[in-house]
Amino acid sequence: MATQVEAPPKYGPQADIDYHPNEEKWRARTARRLAEDPSLPKRPLPKGFPKSFESSLVWGAKDWTDESQWVYKLTEAELKEIDDALKHFNSLNLRKGHVNRDTFPLPTLGPTLRDLSRELHYGRGFFVLRTIPVDDYSRDDVVTIYAGVSSWVGNLRGVQDENASVLAHIKDLSSIHPAKTIGAPAYTTEKQVFHTDAGDIIALFALETAAEGGLSRISSSWRVYNDIAQNRPDLIGTLAEQWSVDTFGGNPPFIWRSPLFYHDGKMIIQYARRVVTGYQGLVRSKEIPPITEAQAEALDTLQFFSEKDNVELNFQKGDIQYINNLSIFHARDAFVDTPEKHRHLLRLWLRDEELAWSLPEGLKPHWKAMFYTATPEEQRFQLEPEIRSALKGGGVKEAEK
Length: 401
Description:
Elements: H1 23-36, E1 71-73, H2 76-92, H3 109-122, E2 126-130, H4 139-151, E3 156-157, E4 168-171, E5 192-195, E6 201-208, E7 212-213, E8 216-220, H5 221-231, H6 233-240, E9 243-246, E10 254-257, E11 260-263, E12 266-269, H7 274-277, E13 278-279, E14 282-283, H8 293-307, E15 311-313, E16 320-324, E17 328-332, E18 335-336, E19 344-351, H9 364-371
Parallel strand pairs: 1-2
Antiparallel strand pairs: 2-16, 3-19, 4-19, 5-17, 6-16, 6-19, 7-18, 8-15, 8-17, 9-10, 11-12, 13-14
Helix pairs in contact: 1-8, 2-4, 5-6, 5-8, 6-8
GO molecular function, one term: oxidoreductase activity
Keywords: Oxidoreductase
Region (Disordered): 1-23
């Protein structure tokens, strides 16, 4: 997964690519590379990789005509069950790390959530749970409800920083933190490009939506694979190679990681654009191997192929959005906040040990660090927004994205 290069040699120039994709540059780069080597589209796929996937996880916008196809609306009885589970957990006087299916019992809703987890892993790969009445509870209780309901979707929570935090806040903090301390668009109002997070399942809970914009978008990475494999199989080979991923001042200064895996009959792409381009306060280090022209083209191809056929999710206050992080890219439109409406999401990284996909060797150390290092007593659920330590400069550990 990670290999330190003790004395990296001098490399060629970094490809001209930024966090925010430029379609004109992408098309010019593609034209230039094809002119230099017209055989690129005729190159074979990596050995063993399929020409295409046929699966319920391969979909486009035309396959979803109404949000009732992916929204599960909680009934009054189910909301009462959640409220009873909250009271039960609070009566136990346990730390939040002990929230699980036993301590947060949902006798009728629980089995439904288990079915929806199967839909995440072996169906379409996403659903929205609507709606938790967040204004009826304290922030502390809201977090408990979020962890309790989500434990029925994925029993393990992944740590998201070196302080064993399993809960992250996605909120614009640019007005109170200078740009040099912000290393991810999650803490700004800017557009987030298509990417993956970490873990098997991403859970996002809307405490509040933006006054304008901030639309959540998803795209099937399996469909994107099919499109690229058909048109530019050479780029599949590029994505399956080892890339240099910046640790932004960490030790080692970079790690080698492949963005794409084919394992156990499944395709998995794990990538975040900013760790190869840098973002605001985290500028890409000059001392590490640069992004090549082929890698820059592949990175932009993922973005623009995702853009051309994506689904808009109407994310409302009190909704929880669950996404299969191994088969779906997600993105967010830029947005505008007002004093009355300030977009604020909570995030969990989850794993369902019963339904989880088999992982390639290259991802196992990362997953072990996320899901099997913090005990329930050590898990941290901060109630107020903060910038994760890995995104302030000074190094990104292998277990962080």
